[in-house]
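Appendix C reproduces, verbatim, an entry submitted by the partner laboratory led by Prof. M.T., so that reviewers can inspect both the input and the predicted structure.
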Amino acid sequence: MIKWDGHSHTKFCKHGNPDELERYLDRAVELGFERYSVTEHPPLPEGLIDDPKLMAELAMGFEEMPAYFGYVREYKNKYEGRLDVAIGLEFDYLHENFAFTERIAEPWADVLEDCVVSVHYLPGRGGMRCIDYKPDDFQVHLLNYYGTMEKVVNEYFDHVELAIETAVRLPGRKRIGHLELIEKFRQALPPVNEGLIHERLERVLPLLVKSGVGVDVNTAGLRVPTCGKAYVPEWFIRKCTEAGVECVYGSDSHKPDHVGFGWDYFERAVQG
């Protein structure tokens, strides 16, 4: 098994860290990683969220894309022979707006090696809402809108299933991002029926098998106080592995000391 971190961010992340990519990559080399995918947040449709301050923190602008790709390509060349630096993006699933996603991907199709597709936004009170912003925001704009956590969870997984269809149409290696992100604030919100989560993940598995889309085994939830667990459960990782679905560890690093976080969880799960 190649030691690979398939989900990471850079100084181009508006809610990340200003450190240069070199610090992340040196840490990856130190920990024995062989491949490191840089998957920054690409642009979002203007006004997707009705909070201008939050919008400014979510993703880079179109004008930054050439600089981002040039930046990662520079480090890809610099680390050749030491670390396979893969150029990628973490696309948002944009409901009924694949045309915007195509607008981002098409000019860079020849260089994109990794595409992570994630569900960060759901329809809610006042329009589209960010599911992983703050517990209070989730309560007001999503839970109060849908009425129960079960309804929010079902809406989320409906979008995950559609995101898999989106991922198929993108270049390079495709993975669905942090499958249980909907549980980021699970210790600060009403409890979710774990049986429902299990049932919805079971429904996702055949879609992954059929599409060839892989899974971002995202460990960031382990470092989130209101979550305390990885965003992909061990039982699901084992089922994916048995079914031939590619599972790739993802630190979701937003600063250098996140690199490698939770690798032991991933390694234990894939080795059974």
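Strands lie at 4-5, 35-40, 84-92, 114-118, 121-124, 127-130, 173-176, 214-218, 247-250. Additional entries are available on request from the coordinating office.
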